């Protein structure tokens, strides 16, 4: 019998958390032969809702759901015990008119205790994916409080931006979304992010050859991805949920699955100084996984336009780091 994989989700009763749990339990992510134990974590007033979700999970009769463990956020250390994957979703979502920077002071403090709890009790091979915004800076805070957890095991989610960018490029080109590859999101998951069309490919060809409208690529495309979260909030009255959950699960799949040759996956990781970006920041970069570990792809072409976009979004990450310097050890 294969040992179960332990997966924790904070904010498990929230919109995104709820939308991840059933797919995690179904076998879709880790395979039908890998049992999954879910660790659900919520703030104390919401624990009753977790009981309802637990009932629903039972009612799905998923053959590989090997257990459900519930803990409140005052006992995170127990909640993360022996976890191999941790999705940090729990936090306050952005409301209409709020930018991510507004959230920093609200959500940042959650991630100090979270980092300490991960260090204290997670499995040695734990991989942490931070979804709660501002996700890059929250990841930096949590990682800084878990110095024994190797830095290549920390990720902040820019996959929703990658998926949004792939969809927009496909629609503009009139091609199916599966024909789009090598879409990198540089920098911060915020309105300064740089969705890189220069290195993107459509049917294996440069997107800039397939889409001749350069003004659209440089203006409309970039803005539409940078502002997509706000547009969803405006239309739906709530922030992206099912698409965000899908992107969180795509992130896990991309970490544990080898990346196709000639393509990349997007996540924010701890910079090692590549592309001239300051080491130690959590920065969206083009990555490739071998199914166990990942590397930053080194052959992305960075022209003057891309350079200025990358510098701008990295400058915002430095500002965010300054805003939370009292939360960094
Ligand atoms: P919800 O308000 O529906 O759910 C959040 C849940 O977190 C709530 O159930 C709340 O009780 C719980 N929570 C709050 N503090 C907690 C703590 N200290 N420990 C454990 N649980 C805690 O928000 P939802 O729509 O699910 O969004 C969650 C987060 O994802 C927000 O920060 C949001 O901004 C962020 N997003 C990130 C995205 C990304 O691409 N990185 C995109 C979507 C989303 O905006």
Overall description:
The protein has about 325 residues and is an alpha/beta fold. It has two domains: about 5-155, Rossmann fold (3-Layer(aba) Sandwich); about 160-325, L-2-Hydroxyisocaproate Dehydrogenase, Chain A, domain 2. Helix content is about 40%, strand content about 20%. It contains twelve helices and 14 strands. The protein has helices spanning about 15-25, 45-60, 75-80, 100-105, 110-120, 135-145, 160-175, 205-210, 215-225, 230-235, 240-255, 305-325; strands spanning about 5-10, 35-40, 65-70, 85-90, 125-130, 155, 180, 185, 195, 200, 205, 265-270, 280-290, 295. The strands form four sheets. The chain has a six-stranded parallel sheet with strand order 3-2-1-4-5-6, sandwiched between helices. Helix 5 (about 110-120) packs across helix 6. The longest helix has 20 residues, at about 305-325. The chain is globular. The relative contact order is 0.13. The mean pLDDT is about 95. The chain binds ligand NAX. Ligand NAX binds near residues 11, 14, 73 and 189. The site of ligand NAX has 30 residues, from helix 1 and strand 2.
Put the structure in a nutshell.
This protein has twelve helices and 14 strands.
Give the tags.
329 residues, alpha/beta, Rossmann fold, six-stranded parallel sheet, three-stranded antiparallel sheet, 12 helices, 19% strand, binds ligand NAX
């Amino acid at each position: 019998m294969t040992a179960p994989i332990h997966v924790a989700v904070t904010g498990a009763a929230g919109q995104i958390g709820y939308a991840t749990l059933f797919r995690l339990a179904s076998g879709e992510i880790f395979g039908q032969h890998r049992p999954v134990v879910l660790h659900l974590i919520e703030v104390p007033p919401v624990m009753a809702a977790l009981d309802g979700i637990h009932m629903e999970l039972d009612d799905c009769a998923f053959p590989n759901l090997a257990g459900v463990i519930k803990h409140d956020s005052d006992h995170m250390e127990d909640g993360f015990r022996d976890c191999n994957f941790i999705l940090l979703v729990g936090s306050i979502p952005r409301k209409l008119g709020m930018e991510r920077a507004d959230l920093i002071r609200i959500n940042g403090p959650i991630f100090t205790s979270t980092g300490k709890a991960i260090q204290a009790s997670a499995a040695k091979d734990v991989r942490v994916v931070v979804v709660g915004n501002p996700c890059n800076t929250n990841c930096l805070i949590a990682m800084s409080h878990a110095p024994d957890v190797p830095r290549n095991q920390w990720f902040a989610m820019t996959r929703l931006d990658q998926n949004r960018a792939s969809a927009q490029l496909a629609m503009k080109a009139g091609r199916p979304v599966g024909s789009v590859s090598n879409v990198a999101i540089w920098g911060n998951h915020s309105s300064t992010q740089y969705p890189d069309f220069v290195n993107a490919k459509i049917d294996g060809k440069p997107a800039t050859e397939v889409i001749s409208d350069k003004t659209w690529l440089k203006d409309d495309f970039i803005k539409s991805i940078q502002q997509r979260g706000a547009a969803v909030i405006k239309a739906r009255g709530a922030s992206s949920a099912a698409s965000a959950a899908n992107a969180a699960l795509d992130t896990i799949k991309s970490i544990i699955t080898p990346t196709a040759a000639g393509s990349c996956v997007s996540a924010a990781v701890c910079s090692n100084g590549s592309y001239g970006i300051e080491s130690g920041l959590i920065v969206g970069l083009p990555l490739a996984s071998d199914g166990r570990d990942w590397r930053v792809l080194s052959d992305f072409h960075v022209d003057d336009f891309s350079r200025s976009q990358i510098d701008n979004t990295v400058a915002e990450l430095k500002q965010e780091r300054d805003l939370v310097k009292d939360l960094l050890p």
